[in-house]
Amino acid sequence: MALTIQVLGSAAGGGFPQWNCNCPQCLGVRAGTPGFTARTQSSIAVSGDGNSFALINASPDIRAQILANPRLQPGRARRDSAIAGVVLIDSQIDHVTGLLLLRESPQALELYCTARVHEDLTHHFPVIPMLQHYCGVNWHPIAANGSAFQVQGVEGVSFAAVDLQSKAPPYSPHRECPRPGDNIGLVIAGAASGRQIFYAPGLGRIDPPVSAAMAGSHVLLVDGTCWTDDELVRGGFGVQSARDMGHLPQSGAGGLLEMLAPYSDKRRILIHINNTNPILHETGAERAQLAATGIEVAYDGQQIEV
Ligand SMILES: [Zn+2]
Ligand SMILES: [Zn+2]
Question: Whose atoms come closest to the Cα of 273: which ligand?
Answer without folding.
Answer: 1
